[in-house]
Predict the structure.
Amino acid sequence: MRDVTLWRSVLGIERAVIEEVEFDEDEQLLVAHVRLRKRVRSRCGRCLRPSPGYDRGEGRRQWRALDVGTVRVFLEAESPRVNCREHGPTVAAVPWARHGAGHTRVFDEQVAWLATQCSKKAVTELMRIAWRSVGSIIARVWADVEAVHDRFAGLRRIGIDEISYKRGFKFLTVVVDHDSGAVVWAAPGRDRATLAGFFDALGEQRCAQITHVSADGADWIQDVVTARCPTAVRCADPFHVVRWATDALDTVRRDAWNTARRAPGGSVGRGYSHGRHQQIATGHARALKRARWALWKNPENLTTAQQAKLTWIATNDPCLHRAYLLKEGLRLVFQLPYDEAVHALDAWISWARRSRIDAFVQLQRKIVKHRGSILASIQASLSNGRIESVNTKIRLITRMAFGFRSPHALIALLMLSLGGHKPILPGRK
């Protein structure tokens, strides 16, 4: 094999002439001096359109390439500017790197693959780059993937949810394809304008092809879906509906505990700590302590101690136990066939309305408002369970992506990891 062919394969470059290779033994650094072939010169770096020369730009520049063993490698070449009809004076394109990048394409691809497979520390130490640089690389790679793949092809049933990605009420709105399980869209924010951006990207014709939309009961989601996909069946996510009941139950539990604690003999003082008077629950209040998990969990998942706690509540606090039964009754509605679920849901609404428990009286009003979408989710056997699974993965990726300059780098990492287009290592097929 000729030396030039070998070096071209090692460096991962095509359509270029290798003029010279320098090796600094002390720095363990290799610099390959290259120049473009005539047929690929003078092209706009953005649109690749042949363009007349403008100036020499900043002269020669370097691009980081993949290491050769433990030796760092750089490509060095002229970096002139061309005068593009569309973009004006622009740095000329080079076949081995993306426009505006300081790394070669194969370097970018390897970093992107590692970021979807490894920890932050592994990526930065192996590739010897800063984590912020990883974010920029991921964004570039995803932009190329997005340009050649139609994310919305065959989209019919979607789930919409929001997830926190940063402290200070920073949220992402995420859209998932129910049929493939892939994340098809994400954007920072959780409001009408943010979600409208998804339907703008989808287009009017494809909006009309959406048959089912699952989401929680947020008004801003319902409003946008109704306006953009009026023919789509809106499905209330069973997970969120049951969580409404769980939240109502927890309100009743807290009220019961506070009432018992404030009753005569319900608590005793035990001095001061950090400038505050400390109280310890006794009697009924003490028995209610740590009852939350016994009330929250499904009956089949209760431990022996939690079962005993629930039995005590049934005997000593009928109101709280009735609230627990209401929560369980609503959960069981989603396990019934559609015809039975219709009657069971109406019966539950009537039961909650007559329960004389304020939290559940208010909840039944909410259930009545969303009755149609709740029954639609049962009929279509559609829930946000898949989305909640995706959200768990997003939370893991979010923790890893801490330190990126912007949420757009995080979104790019999400799309590469969960969008069905994972990067491939360079040189693999």
